[in-house]
Design brief:
By secondary structure, the protein is of the alpha+beta class. It has one domain: Roll (Nuclear Transport Factor 2, Chain: A). Helix content is 26%, strand content 44%. The chain has 3 helices and 4 strands; from the N terminus they run αααββββ. β3 and β4 form a beta hairpin.
């Protein structure tokens, strides 16, 4: 999942989902990626990702992903909570909730 996020690879990310998102959600994601590329001045914005708050249950689990922009988007940061569900013998992403998206004024 982190590789898909770091590479802004929507198709790889979609393959990890339990249920495909609707057209509106996909359009919103496409706009967000286009905006990030434009603000970064490159098709490969540099983003530092981190994972924390891992939890596990018999039926799945959850974790938090933090993202911090580098270079021209160094003032951008975000955090999402990812909920994972067990689907047979494998796990899939059941939900992604934006916890924070903000513009940092300083580190």
């Amino acid at each position: 999942m982190l590789t898909a996020a770091a590479n802004l690879d929507v198709d790889a990310g979609l393959a990890l989902l339990c249920t495909a998102p609707d057209a509106d959600d996909l359009a919103h994601l496409g706009k967000w990626i286009s905006k990030a590329k434009k603000e970064a001045g490159t098709d490969r914005p540099q983003i530092t990702l981190g994972v924390s708050a891992l939890s596990e249950t018999d039926s799945g689990g959850a974790f938090t992903v933090t993202a911090k922009g580098q270079g021209q988007i160094a003032d951008r940061q975000g955090e999402v909570k990812v909920t994972v569900a067990k689907d047979g013998e494998k796990y899939c992403v059941e939900d992604v909730t934006v916890v924070d998206y903000s513009v940092r004024t300083s580190d």
